[in-house]
Amino acid sequence: MPEPARTHANTRHAVLAGFLGWTLDAFDFFIFVFLIDRLATQFGVPKRDMVATLTATLAMRPVGALIFGLLADRYGRRIPLMANVIYFSLIELLCGFSPNYTFFFIMRALFGIGMGGEWGVGASLAMEAAPSRWRGVLSGMLQSGYPIGYLLASVAARFLLPVWGWRPMFWIGALPALLALYIRSKVPESEAWKQHHAPTTGQVLRVVASEWKRFLYLVILMAFMNFLSHGTQDLFPDFLHEIHHVSDSARANIAIIYNLGAVVGAIIFGHLSQVAGRRKGMLAALGLSLLIIPFWAFGGTIFLLVAAAFLMQAGVQGAWGVIPIHLNELSADATRGLMPGFAYQLGVLIASPTNQIEYALRDKVGYQWAIAGFEIVTILALTILLLVGTERHGHSFVRESTPSPSP
Asked: 179: closest CA among 265, 270, 114?
C-alpha cells in the first residue's frame, strides 16, 4: 500500500475505534437512565437508591482515567484501549444478570472505571493519528459518539425495552467486546507515543506535576463543560414531562431529535475550530446556545421546544466537539494518554451535583428559570475561561523525519 494511502487508512481506523468505543460506552451509560423506575421496582428499593448508582458510576470515572491513562502513556494506546473495551463490556454483561440491588450497585461503580478510561485513551489515539488539517472535524466526529450513544439508547428504550425487558438492554452492552478485535487487527500504535513516551510511570506523573497550572485550568474548564452538558441533558426529559406533560414515547422521540442536533453541531463547530481556532470555535457554539435559551426553557409550543432543543444541543455538543483536540493539543507529549482524560473525568466529578442544584433551584424559582439561569451562568463562566485561556492550535504531535544528506 502506498504511504499516503496507508496513512489515511491508519487515521480512519484510529478515529473509528475511538468513535465506536465512546458511542458504545455512552449507550451503556444512558440505557440505565431509561430503566431507573423499572429497576427500583425490580429490586424493591426506593428510586433514590437507583439514582445513587448514577453517582457511583460518575464518581469512579476519574479512577478509570487515572489507571488506563497511565497505562496508555507507559505501554502504548492500543493494548490499554483493548483491555478497557473488554473490561466495560464484561461489567455491562454482568449488570444484566444482577440478582439484587447490592450486586447491581457494585457493577455500576465498576462500570464507571471502564467508562472513565475509554475517552482519554481513545481520544489520544485518534487525535495523534489525525492529519493536522483534519483535526477539528475529526475531533467533532469523535465526540459525536457520545450523543449517538444517547440516541441509540433512546431508540432501544423506545422500541426494544417494551418487548425484551430490562436484562437484554445490558446484555447488548457486551457487544463492544468485538471492537477489541477490530483494534487488534486494524489500528496501529500511535507514532507520537513511540517518539515521546516516558520511560517510567513516575516520569509521567512528574511531567503532569510540572504542568500543574495548565492541568488545574483544564479541570476547571471541564467542570463547567460538564455543567453545560449535564445541565441541558439530564433533566430535560423530566422538564418536558412536568411542565409540558409530554408522554414517555414522545420524550424518547424528542431525545432522538435533539441528539441528532448534537451530532450536527459537534462536526460543524469542530470544523470551525480548525479554521478560526479552538477557543473561537467553542465561543461560537456557546453563543448559539445562549441565544436559544429563551426558546428552549420558555417555548410555548411543542414544535418550538423541539426546534430549540435541537439547536441547543447543536451548540452544547458543538463546544464539546472541539474538546478532544483542544485538550490533546494542550497536553504535554508524554502525558497525552493521561492528562486529557483525567482532567475530563475530574471535571465530571466536580459537576456531578448538577441535577441536585437544578432541582433545588426549581423549588425556589420554578423549573424554567432553574434550567435557564443555571445554563446562563455556566455559559458566561465558560466564556471567561476561554477568553483568559490559551490554545496550541496546530501543535505537532510527531517529529518530522529529516531526509538523509546526499553523498
From this structure: 114
* Structure confidence by residue, pLDDT tens digits, 273-292: 999 999 999 999 999 999 99
Q: For residue range 35-47, what is the model confidence (pLDDT) as tens digits?
A: 888 899 999 998 8
Q: How far apart are CA 345 and CA 114, in angstroms?
A: 12
Locate 368 and state its grid cell.
Answer: 424554567
- Pick left, alpha or beta for residue 245 (phi over 0 → left; psi -120 to 50 → alpha; otherwise beta): left
What's 158's DSSP letter? I
The full DSSP string for 100-114 is: SHHHHHHHHHHHHHH
Give the model confidence (pLDDT) of 232-282 as tens digits.
987 888 888 889 888 878 887 888 899 999 999 999 999 999 999 999 999
The single-letter DSSP state of residue 333 is G
* Distance separating alpha carbons of residues 66 and 63, to the nearest angstrom: 5
What domains, with CATH codes, occur in the chain? 3-183+202-388 (1.20.1250.20)
For residue 275, which phi and psi values (nearest 5 degrees)? -90, -45
List all residues 6 or more positions away from 209 whose beta carbon is below 8 Å from its beta carbon: none
- The fraction of the chain above a pLDDT of 70, given in percent, is 96
Contact predicate 331/193, CB 8 Å: no
Q: Are 86 and 180 in contact (CB under 8 A)?
A: yes
Reported as type and span, the H/E element at residue 382 is helix 367-388
Cell of 54: 448514577
User: Residue 252 CB: number of other CB atoms within 10 A?
Assistant: 20
Find the angle CA(150)-CA(166)-CA(354) to the nearest 5 degrees.
45
